[in-house]
Structures are given as C-alpha cells and as structure tokens.
Amino acid sequence: MTDEEYIVLKRVVHALLLLCLFAIAAAMKNNDGPFLNRVLDQQSPMPPNIPRISELHWLTGTWQGHQGESWMEETFTAPVGDMLLETSRFVDSNKTTFFEFTRMVEKEGSIELIPMPNGKESAPFHATECRENHITFENPALEFPRFITYELADANTLVTRVQGSKHGEHVSREFRYERRL
What we know:
Radius of gyration: 23 Å
Helix content: 10-25%
Shape: elongated
Strand order of the largest sheet: 1-2-3-4-5-6-7-8-9-10
Number of helices: 2
Distance between the termini: 69 Å
Order of helices and strands: HHEEEEEEEEEE
Mean pLDDT: 83
CATH superfamily of the largest domain: Calycin beta-barrel core domain
C-alpha cells in the first residue's frame, strides 16, 4: 500500500467513525432508548420492559378451572429456545366447545403471541406490558380481542383476561385457573 492509499484509507475510516458518533449523538438527543440499547449493548436487543421468552417460565404447567358449566384447561410448555407453546380447551356437557393452539415467540425485539383459535391462524399480538408474573399482549388493529393478559395471581392461580370492544361497548372476559401439574 502506498503512502497516498494509506492516507485515503485513514480518512475513510475517520469519516465512518464520525458518522457513527453523529448517529449515537442524534439518538441521545432524540431520547431513542431502544436504538441506543441496540447500538451500545448488542447482548440486549429487547426493550427493557419486555422479557426474554425464558422469563415466562412462570406460565409452565397445566392450569384448570370452571366457568359456569364449562370446564377449562390451559397447558404451557417450558419456554425453550425462542418459543413457548400453549394449548387450551373449553368443555361443556362432555363436548369440546372451543380449543386453541398458541405460540409465544421471541421475535424482532419483542414477544409475539400467535393464537390459532379452533385451529385457525389469527392475527399476532405483541407484548406491550410486562412485570413480574404478568404479561399483556395487544393487537391495535382488532376490536376484540385487542388485549390478552396472563397474570399469576398467586403461586397456584393463573388469570387470563381478554379485552376489547364489540359494537362500541367495552368487553372484558376473565378466566381463572388453578395449577394442576
């Protein structure tokens, strides 16, 4: 490499470094926390309030409950890799009236919930709120359900809430389950 080529290469590297510094400074000025987290901490691309899928271990197991005449059951696999699987069913008078397969997947800096009510693919929901033993998913494009929340009320009680609106009226359904396995 000639001295002239070395000088040109050195100037290109300096220009690239300056561009990176300007991008970081602009992000700091705009308070773009998630961008800064991705730039400064490549090990933690998830937003700070959204856990890794492995942190949803508290859902693992089989949960059963009753609502009116219906018997309900939800079973969650242990979160492994980037996914947790869930099955649920409602049984009324010894006949299954509803079932669902659900995937919770760590994806693109969030956790995505992909339900399949009665075996049919549905619109995905994205985690919007998370704290210890609580996670809420939302799909703002849907009226009902718009929100799906899982919350551990105590060590042996899981509460699932489905909320949204129908015909302009707020609708909220709550399902309580007891730990079985």
